[in-house]
Design goal:
The chain has about 350 residues and is α/β, with parallel strands linked by helices. The chain is built from 15 helices and seven strands. Bound molecules: adenosine-5'-triphosphate (ATP) and magnesium ion. Magnesium ion binds next to helix 5.
């Protein structure tokens, strides 16, 4: 037991909850592991690599929807490429054409931030395309989540984007979306569309969520590509029920063995902070874990809330030069993290 473990954790903000899609995967402890059942991450990966359709990830605020999706996207086979489509920034996420256009732009953006070296690779591959070498060289770093994107694919996407910008895509943007999917298929990659930042609609009127889910339904029927959509509990309405009939739902579990699960999550954060040899009991005591379990249950399974409490407790413990996180630290964390208003 040593104050230096807590110091090291505090220095890295080891418990601070994040909303960054790419970071979440590394912080995630699979729900399959926490529950001992193959009904979460494995199931999602099996579904999106199977026939097309929409997978709904349903759960309370802060319960781990985005975290689960991020982990699954990082564990897709090479044949599949996940494309995260930002929804929160859209003025009208209920407009199918706006959503479709956003998917095209997202695909191009995801491949746009290449280094000069990668660009050179890319133009070399472009030359290859008119010579005899088969296309398919990989541009390292051009990654959407899941597999690497072949350079040639990036070029096809660029052409699609130019048409899109000039607004001369035949028919409309939905048609452009078909092309987007086929561009991937032609390169033997399968596109998986991810709409996870859908919590932005939480503050909006109920009809907004209904309209958005209706647009998802249209896209799910039109597209030959699997989709993953995160849905918060309070968006359950008539349209959600229709979607659920067509697609498949994975509901984030309320962990019954929460004490065990929270210890497992803390243990993973120790590993992330490169404190591999340190046992959970050397960092947090039983009473403190019990207090966290109460917060978890009372909040309806809000892991974001748990992590916020832990981070405040940790900072407080370090101020006190404590060697271990104990109940008074957690109590302090609960008071500070309590949502105001
Ligand atoms: N299984 C898990 N293992 C480790 N950390 C987790 C797990 N699930 C969630 N978390 C952590 O909890 C926090 C909230 O998770 P996440 O952002 O996925 O919630 P959410 O359900 O998407 O919330 P919202 O409804 O607000 O979008 C994140 O900091 C994440 O790292
Ligand atoms: Mg989320």
């Amino acid at each position: 037991m040593s104050a230096k473990h807590l110091l090291a954790l505090a220095a890295q903000d080891a418990f601070r909850p994040t909303s960054r899609f790419d970071v979440l995967a590394g912080d995630h402890v699979p729900f399959d592991e926490l529950t001992g059942r193959d009904r979460y991450e494995r199931l999602l990966i099996n579904r999106v690599t199977g026939p097309e359709g929409v997978s709904l990830i349903f759960g309370a605020t802060g319960s781990g929807k985005t975290s689960l999706i991020s982990w699954a996207c990082h564990h897709l086979p090479e044949s599949h490429v996940a494309l995260r489509v930002p929804v929160a920034a859209l003025e009208d996420p209920g407009d199918v054409k706006v959503l479709a256009g956003t998917m095209i732009v997202a695909a191009v953006r995801a491949t746009a931030d290449l280094t000069d070296e990668q660009r050179t690779d890319l133009s070399a591959t472009a030359a290859d395309r008119v010579s005899t070498r088969p296309a398919g060289a990989l541009v390292s770093g051009a990654r959407l989540g899941g597999a690497m994107i072949p350079a040639a694919l990036t070029l096809d996407l660029g052409a699609l984007h130019q048409e899109y910008e000039r607004e001369d895509l035949p028919v409309d943007r939905l048609h452009g979306l078909d092309r987007l999917v086929s561009v991937f298929v032609a390169r033997e990659k399968h596109l998986v569309l991810v709409l996870e930042d859908t919590d932005a609609m939480a503050g909006g009127p109920g009809e907004q969520a209904e309209r958005f889910l209706a647009a998802v339904l249209v896209l799910a029927r039109e597209l030959d590509a699997p989709m993953i959509v995160a849905v918060q509990e309070h968006h359950r309405g008539a349209m959600y029920d229709r979607l659920r009939q067509e697609g498949r739902e994975i509901a984030i579990p309320l962990l019954s063995e929460a004490g065990h699960a929270l210890r497992r999550i803390v243990s993973h954060r120790l590993h992330r902070a490169e404190l591999d040899g340190v046992a959970v009991e050397e960092v947090i005591d039983d009473q403190a874990v019990t207090a966290l379990v109460s917060v978890y249950d009372e909040s309806g399974g809000n892991l974001r809330q748990i992590l916020a409490v832990l981070q405040f407790a940790l900072d407080h413990a370090v101020d006190e030069q404590a060697e271990l996180l104990t109940f008074p630290h957690i109590r302090h964390g609960i008071q500070v993290a309590r949502p105001t208003g």
